[in-house]
Amino acid sequence: AQRVTQPEKLLSVFKGAPVELKCNYSYSGSPELFWYVQYSRQRLQLLLRHISRESIKGFTADLNKGETSFHLKKPFAQEEDSAMYYCALSGGAGGTSYGKLTFGQGTILTVHP
Amino acid sequence: KAGVTQTPRYLIKTRGQQVTLSCSPISGHRSVSWYQQTPGQGLQFLFEYFSETQRNKGNFPGRFSGRQFSNSRSEMNVSTLELGDSALYLCASRSRTGGNTEAFFGQGTRLTVV
Could you say which of A43, A46, A98 has the minimum Cβ distance to residue B107? Predict the structure, then answer.
């Protein structure tokens, strides 16, 4: 069974401080990992995916298969980063969970001025 | 290009009734997935449709069903509603099924069962 764990429900930091949102996963195979974000009164949207290896809005995430983690990091948090962040996993091609997104419980990030 | 559209936005139903929710994907997208979001369980996958065929199904009872039409629009039906079915139901569309393809979400339908 696939599982995604986000251990922190709430995370508060001050503007300019580094931020790390933790995500651990369980999956027997090669997963596809994502971070989705939901800003206040907006719909859920993709922030980044591990396969792209890109930085979006200053955020990066590295897939660590040894530790089965996909933590989201930003060196200098901004007030506009305040949102709900979800880590999600999808099975790789050929797997039974191909196309199914399994989400973590989410982390509410608050960046104080 | 228009985003994913879900109708209605809000619904109030009585226990035992049935309900149908609708989702119009982004033009050209052939994959539509449904998710249930509750405070206790978070976001849970219901099912995915691609080219009118159900490709994957989550762990929900048979009261939850869906279908997809030839224009890729999808409907989700819940029969014999229970209080625990109260939730935000989200629809997501993708240009193709699975893998690392980005899922675009609708704003959801808020279902309240009384």
Answer: A43
